[in-house]
Amino acid sequence: MARSTLLAALSCLIFLNCLEPLISWPANDKDAPAMSHPDFDQYLGDYLRPGDNLALLLDYDGTLAELTSHPNLTQMSDEMRESLRNIANSGKAFVAVISGRDVDGVKEKIGLENVIYSGNHGLEVLYPNGTRHNQGIPKDVADNFDKMIDQLTREVVHHGSWVENKRVSITFHFREAEQQYVLEMAARAKEIIESYGYRANPAHASVEGKPPIQWNKGLAAEYILGTSFDANWRQRKVLFAGDDTTDEDVMKMIKGTGRSFRVTKDKDLVTNADYKIPSVDAVYHLLKWIESRVV
User: Fold this and answer.
1) Residue span of the signal peptide, if any (predicted)?
2) Neighbours of 47 (CB within 10 A)
3) Mean pLDDT throughout 186-191?
């Protein structure tokens, strides 16, 4: 009994460590250059020249908008939206936003028409003409969705935590929860999510419950680019910016052909991105630089 209790405690500690928003990749992955004062001419000037056709892929929360205590409070600045609108309407740039939010939610937050939106980490894709693509979810798993939310609500929603229902996935948030309950909450949420056949993944002060499908933002980006262009889409100039662990899959997918940016203030964070930029404000300056190239 003592041994099993010790193992359970160690498992909880290991899982809690995984919930940190900053990650550590294998030692043989080189750290990307830090850009405390981004010089986009220096890092992208030879890659994206004026008039080049561009595919611009972006995360939303923590990239285009500051993280907040509740997703409903997140707002994209008018200046950021205007720059993104100018890029999307330039005729020289293809723009897609790939978010952990549900697809209609991220479209509502950004509010631009000439953009492809992908939600639930790529499980949903909404095109400007209204066409939708959804990755198939096994029926027996989908049938458990409401039961999973009900049990999470009954057992782990307390002291400031809550469950975000994204229709095909969920996020259990504990950013505002009292710290003495976080360890137990996170471990129990993981158990409940996995008991219903969903995958439990750590994210920013949260645990995400996703369908057991081999799919991620990187595969979603590859699908969007491949279906929007052709098999030679890698010959286009591709840029991506994101701030979360889930964005690393896109960074890996375009590595060596495109250019990517990890939004982080941690100079020691090892990432698959080509460069680091420190803030949402830096992303705005990246968009303004891109705008000067394509508009």
Assistant:
1) 1-24
2) 15
3) 97
